[in-house]
Design a protein that fits this description.
By secondary structure, this protein is an alpha/beta fold. It folds into two domains: 226 residues, Rossmann fold (3-Layer(aba) Sandwich); 126 residues, Response regulator (Rossmann fold, 3-Layer(aba) Sandwich), CATH 3.40.50.2300. The chain contains 14 helices and 17 strands. The chain has a seven-stranded mixed beta sheet with strand order 8-7-9-10-11-15-16, with helices on both faces. A five-stranded parallel beta sheet has the order 3-2-4-5-6, sandwiched between helices. Helix 11 crosses helix 12. The chain is globular. It starts with 7 loop residues before the first helix and ends with a strand.
C-alpha cells in the first residue's frame, strides 16, 4: 500500500514553488499555496443538492453557476486562467455537506466553494470552508442564522433571508387580513428561524400567533395540519415550507378549497417548487428576489441566454434560484478580477461592502454586500398567482418591490461575529 510521506525533497520543491507565487504569513498549518501559473485552471467546487428535498432547486442553482462560468471562459477566463468546476451531491444532508466540502478542498483542490439550498447544509459546508480559509458562496439558503450567528469570514450569503421576506409581508398582511395567525413550519433550521422572525414581527405590529404547527422534512400528507388549521380558523397562515414538501402542501390545500380562506403567506417562493403547477395551487402572497418578467433592462437578454444554453431544460424560463446561482458565480469571478489575484484574503476584501448597481442586478434597487454579515442586501418582491395570461410560464404577478433598507435584518448584524483576517487561513488558489 502506498504511503503518504512528505519527503524533504518534496518539501524543498514545494517551498521553491511557493516562493515564486507568494509569501508565507504565519505558521504552516494556516497556509496553503497553489501554483498560480496561467496554465493552472481556477477550480471551483459546486456544493449543491442533486437528491433529497431540494434536488430540483439544486439543479437550477447549478445551471446558473455553469452559465456564468461558460460566459467567463468564452471571454478567456479570469486572470488568463480557465475556470473549471466539479460537483458533488450534498443530498440535502448536513453531514454529507461536510464530507463534500472536505473532499472538494483536500482532494479536488478546489480554491472556492459555491452552492446550497438547505440552510443546515450551508452551515455545515461553511464550517469546513472557514477551517481551511476557502471562500464559500451560499447561493440559495435563507435562514437568518446564515448571516447571523452562523456567519463566517469566508462565507457570503446571496439570497434574501426569512427575516427580509417577513419584513416585506407581515405588517401589510396584518392590516389587510387580520391579526390572528397560525405558523406552519418545516422542522429544521430554516423553518424555525424564519418562523421566529415572523413571530417577532407579529408581536411588534400587534398580531397574535394562535398556534405553530411543526412539519417534518419529507412530509407528503398534510391532512392533520390542514384539519387543525380549519378548526382554529386563523386569519392568516404563515408557511415556511420548502422544496418538495411545499409542492405537496400546495396541491392538498387546493384540493380542499382552502387557498382563499384563510389567507396564506409563504415566506419565500422558489421557482423550481411551483413551476408547472396549476395556478390554483399558487395561492396566497409570497416573496422572491427576482422574476423573469420584470420590466427592467437586461432581463429579456438574460432569459434568451438561458434558453440558448439550456434548450432542453424542462423549466423554459429562469427563476430566482437560477438567478441567485448565476449572480453569485458572476460576482465571485469578478471579485477575483478586481483583486488581480486568487489570494483568498484579497478576494474577501474585494467582496466586503461591494456595491452592485440595480441595472447590473436586473432589480429595482441597488444592492450591496454587507461588510458586517456578508449578506447581499437586495430588492425583495412580493407576488401572487397571475391569472388571465396566455403564457403558461408567466405564473407570478409582482405586487411590489421593497428596498433593501426597508427589509434589512438588523438581528443578523447583532448576532454575527466574523472571524478576524488573522484567524482565517490564507492561500492562493
Amino acid at each position: 500500500m502506498a504511503k503518504n510521506i512528505l519527503t524533504r525533497r518534496h518539501l524543498l520543491k514545494t517551498t521553491v514553488a511557493a516562493g515564486a507565487t507568494g509569501v508565507f504569513f504565519g505558521p504552516w498549518k494556516y497556509n496553503r499555496v497553489y501554483a498560480a501559473g496561467t496554465d493552472k485552471p481556477i477550480k471551483i467546487g459546486i456544493t449543491s443538492d442533486a437528491s433529497g428535498q431540494y434536488a430540483n432547486s439544486g439543479a437550477s442553482d447549478r445551471r446558473g453557476m455553469q452559465m456564468a462560468i461558460a460566459e467567463f471562459n468564452a471571454k478567456g477566463g479570469v486572470l488568463g486562467r480557465k475556470i473549471e468546476s466539479t460537483h458533488i451531491d450534498t443530498e440535502t444532508t448536513p453531514a454529507t455537506g461536510s464530507r463534500v466540502a472536505e473532499r472538494m478542498i483536500n482532494r479536488e483542490e478546489a480554491g472556492f466553494l459555491i452552492g446550497a439550498v438547505s440552510s443546515g447544509v450551508a452551515n455545515a459546508i461553511s464550517q469546513v470552508a472557514q477551517k481551511n480559509g476557502v471562500i464559500y458562496f451560499n447561493t440559495n439558503s435563507s435562514s437568518p442564522t446564515e448571516s447571523g450567528k452562523n456567519c463566517h469570514r469566508v462565507k457570503f450569503v446571496w439570497d434574501g433571508n426569512g427575516a427580509n421576506f417577513a419584513k416585506a409581508a407581515v405588517k401589510n398582511s396584518i392590516d389587510r387580513f387580520g391579526d390572528q395567525w397560525t405558523l406552519l413550519t418545516n422542522d429544521y433550521v430554516w423553518g424555525h428561524n424564519t418562523a421566529a422572525a415572523t413571530r417577532a414581527l407579529l408581536e411588534q405590529y400587534g398580531g397574535t400567533v394562535k398556534e405553530e404547527i411543526l412539519v417534518p422534512q419529507g412530509t407528503r400528507d398534510f391532512s392533520s395540519a390542514l384539519l387543525k388549521i380549519q378548526q382554529d380558523s386563523p386569519n392568516v397562515v404563515a408557511a415556511a415550507i420548502g422544496g418538495d414538501d411545499q409542492k405537496a402542501l400546495r396541491q392538498q390545500v387546493a384540493q380542499l378549497g382552502m387557498g382563499n380562506s384563510p389567507a396564506w403567506i409563504n415566506n419565500q417562493q422558489d421557482w423550481p417548487d411551483v413551476y408547472g403547477l396549476p395556478l390554483d395551487n399558487l395561492f396566497g402572497v409570497f416573496g422572491t428576489t427576482w422574476y423573469y418578467k420584470l420590466d427592467l433592462p437586461g432581463v429579456d437578454d438574460f432569459v434568451a441566454r438561458y434558453q440558448a444554453m439550456y434548450p432542453d431544460t424542462r423549466m423554459r424560463v429562469p427563476g430566482n434560484v437560477f438567478y441567485n446561482g448565476y449572480m453569485a458565480m458572476k460576482n465571485m469571478l469578478e471579485a477575483i478580477e478586481r483583486a488581480g489575484t486568487t489570494n483568498n484574503i484579497a478576494v474577501i476584501k474585494e467582496l466586503e461592502g461591494h456595491k452592485m448597481p440595480a441595472g447590473e442586478r436586473m432589480q429595482h434597487h441597488d444592492a450591496w454586500i454587507d461588510p458586517e454579515t456578508h449578506q447581499v442586501q437586495q430588492s425583495i418582491y412580493l407576488a401572487t398567482a397571475k391569472t388571465g395570461s396566455d403564457d403558461k410560464d408567466d405564473m407570478f404577478e409582482i405586487l411590489n418591490s421593497v428596498s433593501p433598507d426597508d427589509v434589512r435584518d438588523t438581528g443578523a448584524s447583532e448576532a454575527c461575529q466574523l472571524e478576524s483576517y488573522d484567524d482565517t487561513p490564507t492561500f492562493d488558489a
